[in-house]
Write a structure and sequence with these properties.
By secondary structure, the protein is α/β, with parallel strands linked by helices. The protein has 2 domains: 159 residues, Lyase, Ornithine Decarboxylase, Chain A, domain 1; 232 residues, Alpha-Beta Barrel (TIM Barrel), CATH 3.20.20. The protein is elongated. It binds pyridoxal-5'-phosphate. The site of pyridoxal-5'-phosphate has 18 residues, from helix 12.
Length: 399
């Protein structure tokens, strides 16, 4: 059964959320698509600045370590570095990216709880000092490097409300913490702090609040450690096809919880989605149309194997708006938006209503900066979307 109200929200987000074209005009987007072709992703530097600055303002005193995995692009990294942001690195490739854009290691933290010895070596050679661990095997890996590192222990706080519950896979039970601390201390490996990630795209700040309160209890009770750092991870939500809390409202209870922390402890956060998500749009066009099962199927030039891969891996539903000037209260028909590949999972939206569109019409997907192109494939050997970086009103090819 079709639900025209929900479906109009999905496909004509502009009607419901005035910013659904991400601040561009329809005409601008159509011209960008004509000039650069489709599929093209456009990353907007100004939006990265706005997102970074609003999070810094909402979490005063918290040092930001951008989670590179969300949108691993050199221009984004360079710009955030210039704004004063640090980085959360998790892999050799992410360190290579930082090195390629000459970002030094002094404001980086290595957050992957599971690493090969050669990855640890490479990160130390780059200059990384802070590493996250969550189990005893990982602590042992640092024995050979104990004069060069400080460890953070990641605690697991399960969160079924998060769109992506990252504590399913990483983090130690809080009850196991004393054993890990004792192991590190007995081997002369420095423990500098605690970290957690309460899950990505969380609907409310109370998982962060509860995790902070539990970490503060640990700091106060385990006095054999010189605690220096609390890393509160990511999770800060953005608006997709439904509303999300304003960032100041979201962060207010987190700031209240952080007030009970001793002043000698630095607080870090690892935002990925909040900074990158709203900073990119994707232009797509219709390459084919067919009638199947009483619905009009529109085949686009990118889909869930490409930039919209976040629909599968990240469980995100991106606002998608056709840029035609049709009167979309008229002539709406049951429709499907599908990606280009030969696989039938490559369907972007079904059971939606759309006005009649034609081959070559352009659509825009917004909020596609985080966990999108980062997980895109070249399945069927469709090349990945072109990426442009909009800086000071000039479009540059993204590196
Ligand atoms: C260790 C770590 N830090 C930070 C992030 C970024 O989280 P978010 O995008 O929710 O801000 C992630 C996401 O997977 C992560 O695994």
């Amino acid at each position: 059964m079709l639900n025209p109200v929900r479906d109009l929200k999905t496909c004509f987000a502009e009607q419901v959320y005035p910013n659904s074209l991400a601040g561009y005009s329809r005409q601008q987007l159509i011209e960008l698509a004509k000039d650069h072709g489709t599929p093209t992703m456009i990353i907007n530097q100004e939006r990265i600045t706005q997102q970074y600055q609003s999070l810094v303002k909402a979490l005063p005193g918290v040092k930001m370590q951008y989670a590179i995995k969300a949108l691993p692009h050199g221009e984004v990294i360079k710009h955030l570095h210039n704004l004063g942001c640090g980085f959360d690195v998790a892999t050799r490739g992410e360190i290579d990216l930082l090195t390629s854009v000459q970002v030094p290691a002094d404001r980086t933290i290595h957050t992957h709880p599971i690493k090969k010895d050669e990855e640890i070596k490479q990160a130390i050679a780059y200059g990384c000092r802070y590493f996250v661990v969550d189990n005893s095997h990982e602590i042992d890996k640092f024995l050979a490097y104990k004069t060069q590192v400080d460890l953070l222990i990641r605690i697991n706080f399960r969160n079924q409300d998060a769109v992506v519950d990252l504590s399913r896979k990483f983090g130690c039970e809080i009850a196991h913490l004393p054993v890990l601390v004792e192991q590190a201390q007995s081997k002369g490996i420095s423990i500098a702090g605690l970290s957690f990630h309460v899950g990505s795209q969380v609907p409310s700040p109370y998982a962060h609040v509860s995790a902070i309160e539990q970490c503060i209890k640990v700091f106060n009770s385990m006095t054999s450690v010189d605690w220096k750092i609390l890393d509160i991870g990511g999770g800060f939500p953005i608006e997709y096809s439904g509303p999300s809390p304003e960032i100041e409202d979201f962060c207010r209870p987190i700031n209240v919880a952080l007030r009970s922390l001793n002043d000698s402890i630095s607080v870090l956060a690892e935002p990925g989605r909040y900074i990158a998500g709203p900073a990119a749009i994707q232009l797509l066009s219709i390459v084919g149309i067919a009638q199947r099962g009483g619905r009009t199927w529109y085949y686009l030039d990118d889909g869930v194997y490409g930039v919209l891969s976040g629909q599968i891996y990240d469980h995100a539903k991106y606002p998608i708006t056709p840029l035609v000037n049709n009167d979309f209260t008229q002539g709406l028909k049951p429709s499907v938006l599908a990606g280009p590949t030969c696989d039938s999972i490559d369907v972007i939206d079904e059971d939606i209503v759309l006005p009649e569109l034609k081959i070559g019409d352009i659509l825009v997907a917004t909020q596609v900066g985080a966990y999108t192109v980062a997980s895109a494939t070249e399945f069927n050997l469709y090349p990945k979307a072109k990426i442009l970086f909009l800086s000071d009103k000039k479009l540059l090819p993204a590196i």
